[in-house]
Amino acid sequence: MNNFARALPYLWPFRKRLFLSILFAVLVAILWGTNLTAIYPVVKVMLENKDLVVYADEQIAAATEESDALSKKVNDLTERRAEFEAQLTNENLSKKQYEQLEHEKDRLIGQLSDKQTSLSKATSELSLWTWVKSDIIEHLPRDKFDVLAVLLAALLIATIIKGIFVVIQETLISSVVELTTINLRKECFKKVLSLDYQTVHHHGTGDLLSRFTNDLNLFGLGLRLAGGKIIREPLKAIACMGIAFMVNWRLTLLSLLMGPLIAIVFNRIGKRLKHASHRMMESMSRIYQTLEETFDNLKVVIAFNGAPTHRRRFHRENKEYYNKMLRIIKLDALTSPTTETLGMIAGFMAVLPGTYLVLRGTTEIWGIQLAAEPMTIASLIVLYAMLAGIIDPIRKLSTTYSKLRRSSAAADRIFELLDTETLVKEPETPLSFPRHSQSISFRRIEFDYFCGAQEKKREQQILSGVDLDVNAGEVIVVVGENGSGKSTLVNLLPRYYDPDYGTVEIDGINIRDVKLKDLRAQIGVVTQETLLFDNTIYDNIRYGKPEANSEEIIEAARQANVLDFSEQLPDGLQTWVGEKGGRLSGGQRQRIALARAFLSDPSILILDEATSAIDAQSEILIHEALRQFSVNRTVFLITHSVSPGILDFVSRIAVMDQGQLVAVGPHDTLILSCPVYQKLYQAQTHQRSSRTGPIQTVHTDDFERLSPSAEEQDYMAEVEDQEAAATGDSSPSILKLDRSTNSNPTSPNTQPKRKDATG
After folding, report:
1. 411-452, pLDDT tens digit by residue?
2. Most buried of the four, 259, 571, 709, 747, by CB within 10 Å?
3. Strand pairing partners for 441?
């Protein structure tokens, strides 16, 4: 429930509506008590056959007589008190006499106080009956049936007015709740966007969607109940309780003895409800996760006939949710009859003794005084009506109790998200960060991904002791097998996450000491999975620099070869790309992502497997665009294999293996000295040689750039011979045949000497 209090800052902007709704709740409570009080004159007219004017005169006469008697008694006690005070001034009194007089004086003062209270009550009652007679009864018809009809009509009108007030109060509080929920949803969205990548990834999209939708809806329901029934129903019960105390406070107190027991029962049920609600909402998160995973991978599901598997999983998660929800339903169902039973017992504890007092015409039971004067049937019926008026709001509250506890559990999850601290923090005193122009350094980097409470820590870190220096303007290829840590290393640059140990420096400045906004303004990123928004090509490119003008956007599109295909589309750059860019091919999406990065004019460009999932033609176009754009920029190309198409503009290659940097250097050196790189390059060469397809014309310049060097051919031929010997295959090496063919000095395919990769 503490988290409901935390919602107050979000409610405060709408406090006027909130206070107005509380005012209408008070009016509803007053009308509720007034309507039930109307039963008193009805009983007097119908059961006791009383004329209201005569009855009012009797009450006024009795109140006047009692008031006069009490006034006389108060005057007598006041005179006696003055006498005692005069006697106490006598200096001849002994100590014992003085103490006795002091005791009598104190006793007299107590009696005087009681009589003054009774006199005040009698005077108030006299004033009330005088007002009732002059302002109400005098305006009623004298015929008893007509009086009853007027009373019932007044009761009906009061009920209609009460209903209108309820509608107004519910409307006001609902508007406050909806506005508050919107603010909370925006605050949660803002919080998620401020978190680091791995924290968001650890939560998972399904869990976050559940908190943004299901949990916030449940929390809003709880706020609506808290501002509606939770305020209105207790006020109605308090109004009835006040009237019941006026009728007979002793019997009313007797009925309240069940209060502690009701509180204990509610507390125990509430704890179980909250625990069950937590588990239910976690189950709902898994349902969201299942849906998201299935829809995002629908092509795979269709291709492999995986629909039955996903249906079974979805059925399993829904069954789990059903079991948890059923537990909540059972607890909820138990609440209402339990409350009604305890409420009836509480009512019987007052009504049964009251009935005894009426039937026996007494004020005591077993010597215990339970009434100041003998009760009448009318007063007993009013007391019963008031107790019923107390029980009814409690019964209504019991039906909302389970919803309130579920809402409390939802509030826990919402504010747990809002309390989540990002692992990547802004510096307290950020340094100025000029445009990168010198170097980038990774110093003794150690890193492992964040593990939750239920996850085991890996035996081996993702990155371990990595040192790498990169000069400004270099094009660095970071290569390695899947899971080698290559992407993780480069992703430290935009601070998707921070290393556990070590530092990343740009131009000698620790990137933790600069603002995240300033750092990321200098970095452009193109990922393997092209992420486009459901908008036009133009707007997706402009995302890299929202303030860019049309000329800049078109120039970025030209640099990334986007215009080549966009001009063939009916709407050109204004073509809608669809959800996640689904209306375009993979190569087209990747070129748009490249244009987006180009537009931001970064000093550092990161391409994470940017060409791994596109066709050869798109890859050539992207490489051509990179060759031109990489001038005077530091570029990191992350890949699991090196394509010969990029070797002529790559400065160095960094080889990652099992979280460690095992080698750095140009291609010619690594192909001879680094076994890990040799293996990766050989695998890539075999993959290219095994591809089949239509014959394409290859220009001489392209062939020179794509063909392996003499040293590379020697090494790969030797490896193929070793594999052939191991498998018993005596066929000659393909590369050896190619070498013999290319050895002819007159052959047009003779491999010229390639430039040194370092320039």
Report:
1. 888 898 888 888 888 898 989 999 998 999 999 999 987 765
2. 709
3. 469, 505
